[in-house]
């Protein structure tokens, strides 16, 4: 979608020295209470797809994301392409890259190649993951001399590369999918905590038991204690589940920044497949609405509902002050993420000057109005520029 006339209501963004994500977040939060944005992509299967993705990245880089992620295929299936995309994108698009690295179903040498290649290419950020089994294989496996879990990889990175990388680790608000099992197998009624995170998988209720959730959280703390700097969550759609997850992290003494993984809704079939695979909780009201919009003739209504729902979720996250930024799973396209950013007031027309940084007093806001009017008088203005003046004046009036 076009960004013409769009204004980012966050105002002028902080000037951040590009480098390690944990350090960039610390610098950002020291300068503003506004959230940053970041985007995630996956390696395309064709050369044409790669070329198209670079165009998308160039477009989305104009929104000044704090960083961009590139995923690593199961068993290292896309390792060469992920490394190439990561190093090329950081140079070509001047955005810090956060490269995913999985460690199971592949030789340790492949992990070494990824880490050394990232280091040589100036990549300073790694997402350390266990990884999913390759297509056609039901379970992940430990290769001889390889790693058994993400914790092993975090320890290995710290032992062999010290503090060169900011290490990001995964968090699972409902519990890891491998620990989410049938409620019928609990052998007892669900607790209130379990009922709050219960997941409907193809009509059958599943949940991460309280006992397993305690193990999950202890394991996450182990990853952070071993060197994990930032937590990025799996997609979720229930704000209360995320809020509880953050509270549990803090209770355990986990101090790492927790970034929420935001997955836009694109189509009913894709939504059902992804949430089924990840065993994602869908709040009952959302689930009922989704089911009412699954028809082929309701695609536009489905998309509109998705935009409204995700925008509201992001607003809840920002208002909660639990997060320093929003991490969007962009699915290799700009449109849906841009539509959400526009509704949040975070989309910026890159050809237009940004609003000054947000201010706290009425007098300062009126100064913003005068500054914008002076800009219009000097440069000439259009309807979009006048809209910016109106926006600032309205803000001043409300103070």
Shape estimate: globular
Helix and strand run? HEHEHEHEHEEHEEHEHEHHHEHHH
* CA-CA gap between termini: 33 Å
**Distinct helical segment count:** 14
Structure, described:
The chain is α/β, with parallel strands linked by helices and 399 residues long. It is 47% helix and 14% strand. The chain has 14 helices and eleven strands. The strands form two sheets. An eight-stranded parallel barrel has the order 1-2-3-4-5-9-10-11, surrounded by six helices. A three-stranded antiparallel beta sheet has the order 6-8-7. Helix 2 packs parallel to helix 3 (79-93). The chain is globular, with a radius of gyration of 22 Å. 40% of the residues are buried.
Structural key phrases:
three-stranded antiparallel β-sheet, eight-stranded parallel barrel, single chain, 399 residues, alpha/beta
In short:
The protein has 399 residues and is α/β, with parallel strands linked by helices. Helices cover 47% and strands 14% of the residues. It has helices at residues 21-31, 47-61, 79-93, 108-120, 150-161, 192-197, 210-226, 239-251, 268-278, 284-292, 299-320, 335-344, 362-379, 383-397; strands at 36-41, 68-70, 97-102, 125-129, 166-171, 180-182, 199-201, 204-208, 230-235, 257-262, 325-329.
């Amino acid at each position: 979608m076009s960004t013409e006339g769009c204004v980012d209501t966050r105002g002028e963004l902080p000037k951040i020295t590009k480098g390690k994500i944990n350090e960039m977040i610390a610098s950002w939060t020291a300068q503003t209470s506004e959230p940053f944005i970041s985007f995630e992509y996956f390696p395309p299967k064709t050369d044409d797809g790669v070329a198209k993705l670079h165009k998308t990245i160039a477009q989305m880089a104009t929104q000044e994301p704090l960083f961009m992620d590139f995923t690593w295929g199961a068993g290292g299936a896309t390792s060469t392409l992920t490394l190439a995309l990561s190093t090329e994108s950081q140079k070509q698009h001047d955005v810090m890259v956060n490269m995913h690295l999985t460690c199971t179903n592949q030789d340790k040498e492949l992990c070494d190649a990824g880490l050394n290649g990232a280091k040589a290419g100036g990549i300073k950020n790694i997402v350390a993951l266990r990884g999913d089994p390759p297509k056609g294989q039901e379970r992940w496996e430990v290769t001889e001399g390889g790693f058994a879990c993400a914790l092993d990889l975090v320890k290995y990175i710290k032992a062999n590369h010290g503090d060169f990388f900011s290490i990001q680790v995964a968090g699972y608000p409902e519990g890891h999918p491998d620990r989410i099992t049938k409620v019928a197998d609990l052998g007892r009624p669900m607790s209130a905590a379990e009922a709050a995170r219960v997941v409907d998988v193809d009509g059958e209720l599943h949940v991460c038991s309280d006992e397993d959730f305690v193990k999950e959280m202890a394991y996450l703390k182990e990853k952070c204690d071993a060197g994990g700097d930032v937590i990025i969550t799996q997609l979720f759609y229930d704000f209360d589940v995320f809020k509880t997850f953050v509270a549990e992290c803090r209770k355990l003494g986990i101090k790492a920044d927790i970034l929420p993984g935001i997955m836009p809704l694109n189509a009913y079939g894709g939504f059902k497949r992804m949430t089924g695979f990840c065993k994602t909780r869908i709040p009952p009201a959302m689930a009922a609405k989704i089911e009412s919009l699954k028809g082929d003739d309701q695609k536009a209504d489905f998309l509109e509902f998705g935009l409204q729902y995700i925008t509201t979720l992001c607003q809840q996250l920002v208002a909660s002050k639990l997060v320093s930024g929003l991490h969007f799973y962009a699915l290799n396209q700009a449109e849906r993420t841009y539509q959400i950013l526009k509704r949040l007031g975070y989309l910026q027309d890159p050809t237009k000057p940004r609003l000054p940084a947000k201010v706290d007093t009425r007098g300062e806001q009126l100064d913003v109005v005068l500054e914008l009017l002076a800009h219009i008088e000097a440069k000439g203005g259009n309807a979009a520029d006048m809209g910016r003046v109106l926006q600032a004046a309205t803000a001043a009036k409300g103070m």
